[in-house]
């Protein structure tokens, strides 16, 4: 089964075209990166797949179910770009709350707690009130919350923004470990250099995909030595057309 199937998905806000004719087909067990500069439509695309934003046209399926339909978020995890956690609760209480919202029983939650806290290296802070954590630590709680219910498909919107380099490397190790266990990750980033860690990428510009494939395919097709140069070259070609 495809993890996501998107055909001709579009969304405008008045005169602003946020996403235009998006086509994406991602197999299960891949790390797929949606990349592009601020405002190119990455978050809007993800929100349409989650059923949080209604598309103007096009269709999208998530794990075989129509995006936004009843049950379409079963087995799906989401880390929003803006952290949405309960500041007055502890790390553990946040985790437990979101586990419950996602249908995990108390027993199932207890089995997951140590595993997800280990993945984000926050075991020792489990009893800290969220408002007492640093920005990067809060970010890690947000990642832990998105995967506490062991989803099959995880949407991560800019998971590495504001995360220091050692922790970022740690995040990527975590993503690969989860991918190797069969999880599909759809993530966004505007850091082109780190997108080489993805199995597949789609580069977006002004709501449209300008290149798609493995990072090395995209670089060799645009005769660029890195993804940043590839993006700049492809953008110039687009402008010429
Ligand atoms: N609710 C909304 N109302 C009006 N315009 C919106 C809304 N949501 C997004 N937009 C516009 O749609 C465009 C795409 O926004 P989006 O948030 O999808 O970009 P992005 O690629 O996620 O950017 P960033 O890298 O900054 O997170 C932007 O021009 C934005 O201003
Ligand atoms: Mg965004």
Description:
- With 241 residues, the chain is an alpha/beta fold.
- Helix content is 34%, strand content 27%.
- It has a domain at 1-70 and 187-241: Rossmann fold, CATH 3.40.50.300.
- It is built from seven helices and ten strands.
- The strands form two sheets. The chain has a six-stranded mixed beta sheet, with helices on both faces. It has a four-stranded antiparallel beta sheet with strand order 2-1-4-5, covered by helices on one side.
- A hairpin with a 2-residue loop joins β1 and β2 (16-27).
- The longest helix is centred in the last third of the chain and has 16 residues, at 165-180.
- The radius of gyration is 18 Å and the shape is globular.
- The model has no long low-confidence stretch (mean pLDDT 92).
- Adenosine-5'-triphosphate (ATP) binds at residues 13, 16, 18, 36, 38-44, 81, 190.
Task: For the structure shown, list the relevant keywords.
globular, alpha/beta, four-stranded antiparallel beta sheet, 34% helix, Rossmann fold, 7 helices, binds adenosine-5'-triphosphate, single chain, six-stranded mixed beta sheet, binds magnesium ion, 241 residues
What is the strand and helix layout of this fold?
Elements: E1 2-13, E2 16-27, E3 31-35, H1 42-49, E4 57-62, E5 65-66, E6 76-79, H2 91-101, H3 106-119, H4 135-147, E7 153-157, H5 165-180, E8 184-189, E9 200-205, E10 208-213, H6 215-221, H7 227-240
Parallel strand pairs: 3-8, 3-9, 6-7, 7-8
Antiparallel strand pairs: 1-2, 1-4, 4-5, 9-10
Bound molecules: adenosine-5'-triphosphate and magnesium ion.
């Amino acid at each position: 089964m495809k993890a996501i199937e998107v055909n001709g998905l579009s969304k405008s806000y008045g005169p602003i075209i946020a996403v235009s004719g998006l086509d994406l087909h991602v197999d299960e067990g891949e790390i797929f990166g949606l990349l592009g500069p601020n405002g190119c439509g990455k978050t809007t695309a993800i929100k349409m797949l989650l059923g949080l934003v209604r598309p103007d046209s096009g269709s999208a399926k998530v794990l075989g179910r129509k995006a936004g339909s009843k049950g379409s978020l079963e087995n799906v995890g989401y880390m929003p770009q803006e952290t949405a956690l309960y500041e007055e609760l502890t790390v553990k209480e946040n985790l437990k709350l979101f586990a419950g919202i996602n249908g995990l029983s108390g027993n199932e939650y207890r089995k997951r707690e140590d595993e997800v806290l280990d993945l984000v290296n926050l075991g020792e802070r489990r009893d800290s009130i969220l408002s007492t954590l640093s920005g990067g630590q809060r970010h890690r709680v947000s990642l832990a919350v998105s995967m506490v219910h062991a989803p099959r498909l995880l949407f991560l919107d800019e998971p590495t923004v504001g995360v220091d380099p050692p922790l970022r490397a740690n995040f990527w190790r975590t993503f690969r470990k989860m991918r190797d266990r069969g999880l599909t990750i759809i993530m966004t980033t505007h850091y082109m250099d780190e997108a080489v860690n993805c199995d597949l990428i789609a580069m977006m510009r002004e709501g449209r995909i300008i290149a798609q494939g493995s990072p090395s395919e995209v670089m060799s097709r645009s005769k660029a030595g890195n993804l940043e140069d590839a993006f700049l070259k492809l953008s110039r070609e687009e402008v010429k057309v």
